[in-house]
Every structure is written in C-alpha cells, then in structure tokens.
Amino acid sequence: ILHISDADVRETKMLGSAPIILVMFRTQEIHCIRDKEGQVTEGGQDSIRTVYYQWAMQLMDSDELPEEESYYAVWRLREMHQLGVKALI
Length: 89
Known about the structure:
Layout: E1 3-15, E2 18-34, E3 40-59, E4 75-87
Antiparallel strand pairs: 1-2, 2-3, 3-4
Pfam families: Tim44 (PF04280)
Domain Tim44-like: 1-82
Protein name: Tim44-like domain-containing protein
C-alpha cells in the first residue's frame, strides 16, 4: 500500500450492545503477484492501482480481551469489501 485517502465514516449502528462503524476509503497499491520461485505472474512492480474499500469495524467487549488490554478500546475488523479497482499505471 502506497497511500490511503478519502477515509469517510459512512454509517454507525448497533449490533446488540456493540457499536459498528462502516468506513469507506481508497488506497493506491502496487499490484504484483509472484509465484513461489519469485516470478511475476500478475501485474508488476510498476503496476499501481487505486482500490476502493468498505470496512465494518466492531468495538470488542472488554470481556473478550486479556485483562491488560481491556483498559483501551479495541476495534475488530468484522467485514472488508473491495468495492472497485482502477488501474493508474
């Protein structure tokens, strides 16, 4: 990932007693897939794409956390959707 931008909270809701936040953002990523020998099989080192994501994050209940971590709010990634891809280079 080269860059993250346009982060926007799209929705907040409750799932039982746990809050859920839906966040949309975009990244610029290098698209380069290699096989086990290291040969490029898809994309390349200079293949840059803009990728659009939506994440749903849920606040974890302090009962689910180790005691030393329960002092801080901890968010769990519940769902991740890739909404689209646009090639830049």
